[in-house]
Structure formats: C-alpha cells, structure tokens
Input
Amino acid sequence: MPRQAPDCRYLVVGRTQILTSALKGNAMSVAFATERNSAMNRSDLADLNAFVAVANHLSFRAASAQLGVTASALSHSMRQLEERHGVRLLHRTTHSVSLTDAGLHLLEQLRPAIDQISGALETLNQQRQRPFGRLRIHATHIAAAAAIAPVWARFASTYPDVHLEILMESRPIDIVASSFDAGIGRKEWAAADMIAVRVLGPMKVAVVGAPSYFERRRSPRTFDDLASHSCIQYRFAPNEAVLPWSFERNGKTKRMTLAGALTVNDPFLAIRAAVDGLGIAYTVEALAEPFLQTGQLVRVLERSSPCLEGLFLYYPGRRQVPAALRAFIDMIRAPKSAQGIRSVKNPFFKD
Output
C-alpha cells in the first residue's frame, strides 16, 4: 500500500500554491525568500509548492490539473527539488505515487510553520472584521482638543481592543513615511491621492482672560481696545513673525498684530497663561470652554470673533481601510450641517 500523505488540502491563487489545514480549513501560504547561498534557494519555492500538491494528491495528473501546469512540468520540478538536495521525496511509477520517509518528514516539518501562518492570517481576518490593534493619528493641538478629545472616551469604551496613539504638531508631515494611519488638520495638508473627510465644521474664536486680569484692566469693548492690553502672543518658530489676530466688522475681516509680555508656541500654554492672569488669549471655543464653564476665564469680543476654517481627517487610499480607522472616522465625522458657515484661514495651522 502506498504511504498516505498527511491530511492536507490546498488552494491556488494565481500561480501561487497555498496549503490549507483540513482541520481548520484556513488558507495558509508559506513564503520562502532567501539568498542563493542559503540552505534553500529561491527556486525551491515553486518546487516545494509542486511537492505539496503531489504529496497531497499522490498523483501527478491530479496535482497538475489543480495547479494548471502539465504533468511533465510537475515531474521536472520534483526532479529538480530532489537533485538539488540529494534526497528522494517521492516513490513514483507510471501508475502510482507515494511519499518516502524523507518526503513525509518534510511535510511534518512544514506543519508548525503552516499552523503559525494560519494563526497570523486568522488574526489579519479579525482585524478586517473588527477594530483591533494600534491606531496612530497625527493631529494639530487644536484638532486633538476639538475633534478627538470629545469622542475618545466613547471610542475607547466601544472599541477596547484598539490602542489609540496621538502625536500633536502644528505643521503637516508625511503621515505615510512616519507610519501614521491618518492625520487631522487643514484639508490642504492631504496629498492629492489621499481621502479627506470633514471632522469638524468652522470653529468659533474665543478671546478670553481671567477675572483677575479684568479686575486690573477694563474689558475691551471693541477689538481696537486690545491695543492697550497685554495680549498673549503665539509664534511657531523663533525666527517667524507672531500670529495676527483676525476679527470681523461689517462682514469684513481685519487682521491685527498686537503687543504682549508673553509669547508661546503652544495653544494650551496660551490658555494656561490666560488662566494665570498674564493677559488675553486668542484661541478657539473647544480649548477655552472647560475654563469658561468653571469661571476661570471670561470671554470678550464675542460678536467680533470670526469662525476659523474647520478640520479634516485625511488618510491614504479608499481600499482596505483598517477597521479601527473606519470606526474612528464614523465616530468623528462631522454632520452635514457643519458645512456652509463662513470662516477665515486658521492661523494656528502651519502651511
């Protein structure tokens, strides 16, 4: 009686042989890529695929039909594999095929790798079906506070298997080269071949100061009154100009460069300075709201404060979007009602 091969099945994807465990029924691919001077050279890949097919069917004809090659080509591959390694793997006649002890041993040694790859593919399939693993987002400081912070508790409780990682910067980077899944900032930051999704509509400016500050100085009634106040400045880099403050009057936008005793490069630090009574800060509602609610800050010039352009999440490609990113987008996406509001360029975004 010919020796039977271990119970295996296989699929063919293109010209690639994929071994499948009969017990689990999951597709598993064994990839071999080594230098020619190693124990296995690159031609072994095709020959081992052929060997698995023949060993499974114990028939060159059946294996060749499954692989889409001729029986003679399959026989030639087996000869090459055996001659290259100096070991007979198959007993064969014109009527029957069986495994030698060496051939059977080769299949048995492949099984642990096959099972490991099966597990890896199963994990990959789970990632496709449910949010899982690490999700890395590059965002501006304002984007993190206005778009991410309001939903991250709900996101974490809804998708406990996702590890959310956020890096905050005020200028764009190559998110693909830096291994980020997505970025949040100006729509113009998205490369031409990226997908951009609005996650926040225009953001209302908040001009704020501490009650202790306004006890010492009269609150400004118009933005022209700011010339006599200490205005907390914002500068991206040491050699760059401070950011102007934009206001609206009669449907027109006015940009002002104001004086102050403190300059920062972080909007959160500007808020902290305002809370400490060091001056008036120019920010957005999302950052100021917690301190306005507690009374640590007071808002001024609200009627003259414009809306700054909204935020977009951008990521590469529409196909095979990771489940974690898709879930995040669905949770953070802005409603259609957030569109159509007049806004000015956001000074806190570096071009």
